[in-house]
Structures are given as C-alpha cells and as structure tokens.
Write a structure and sequence with these properties.
Elements: E1 3-8, E2 30-38, E3 41-49, H1 51-58, H2 62-93, H3 95-98, H4 102-130, H5 134-142, E4 143-148, E5 152-157, H6 160-169, E6 174-175
Helix pairs in contact: 1-5, 2-4
The structure holds zinc ion.
Length: 177
C-alpha cells in the first residue's frame, strides 16, 4: 500500500525520519538520497535504508553497466562533435564567426557542448536505471518525494511500518493532502 504523506517543511529544514530501512524496516545503517526537481531547483533529502538495501543500491545489473558504458561513449562523442562543429564548421558557415579569435570560438563551443553532453549522459542514466535488478528498483521506489513547495513536502512511502513511524515523528507537522 502506498502512503501519501504531506509534511510541513521550510527549505533547508531537516526532516525527521525513523531510524529504520524505508524498504524492509530493518535497522538503518545507510541512507538513500531522494529528491524532486521543479524547473531549475531540486530539493533532496536522505532517507534511511539498512546496509543490505544500501548495498543493492550500489550494485548494477549487467544491462545497467552496459547502458552506462554506452552512455559515457555517446556523451563523449557528442561533445567532441559539437566542439569540432563549433571550432571548424561554424566559421565556414557564418562569416562573422571567422573574425572571432580561436579562444572565443573554443569557449563558445564548450558552452554549447556541455549542456548537450549532460543531457545525453542523464538520458542513458535514466534508461540504465530501468534495467536495474527488481530489488534495487523496489528499494528506490520505497520512498519517493512527489511534490514540494516553499512550506511543505509530499512523500510516498511503500512500507507500512516506516510510514507509521514517520507519521509519529512528524505528527505536529502533518498536513491535509
Ligand atoms: Zn532494508
């Protein structure tokens, strides 16, 4: 069962989590970062997990490894192509670029390449995560941040015990969904 919990929290305020694993409710020894992006800002918190679940988070399936490697090669290749295009091809297409000194062309090309390289890398990282082992996906899905604002954060917890303890710890700050 999924427990949707909205709790009052200002940005930067530390939220209280029970000291048990969000997946299997064993004693926690590790933590898992969960977060939510809204436009340019990201809010993230660390949720407790046990050592066994923490280990699973760090393991990659064969397919995951393969996609990460392909992603790395693709990101480097795309970066090099954009650099090459910015330095050599663009000046031949747009005459004013030929007047720019080489260092300016280089800065321009790097500025163009960096966001694309990051986007390609993140695309493959997301794809690779889908190929993760079921246990890893289960741990990752056990606690999610689904929404946040300047005064509240909404979580979804799958583990009943974890959700119950979280509610107890944050009782005075719970909000209506
Ligand atoms: Zn666990």
């Amino acid at each position: 069962m999924i427990h949707v919990i909205k709790v009052k929290s200002q940005p930067g305020e530390v939220l209280r989590f029970p000291k048990i694993c969000s997946h299997c409710s064993q004693a926690a020894g590790e933590r898992m970062r969960i977060g939510k992006r809204r436009g340019q800002t990201i809010r993230s918190v660390y949720v407790p997990v046990c050592e066994a679940c923490g280990r699973e988070l760090n393991l990659k399936s064969g397919e995951e490894e393969r996609l990460v490697r392909i992603g790395l090669v693709a990101a480097v290749l795309v970066g090099l192509i954009i650099l090459f295009a910015g330095l050599l091809i663009l000046p031949s297409l747009i005459s004013i670029v030929r007047l720019f000194p080489i260092w300016l062309r280089l800065i321009f090309s790097v500025a163009l390449a960096v966001p694309v390289v990051i986007a390609v890398w993140q695309l493959f990282k997301r794809r690779s995560l889908r190929a993760a082992k079921p246990i890893k996906l289960a741990v990752l899905n056990s606690a999610r941040m689904t929404h946040y604002s300047w005064r509240a954060t909404t979580f979804e917890f799958e583990n009943d015990v974890f959700a119950e303890r979280f509610n107890e710890l944050n009782e005075s700050n719970l909000m209506e969904i």
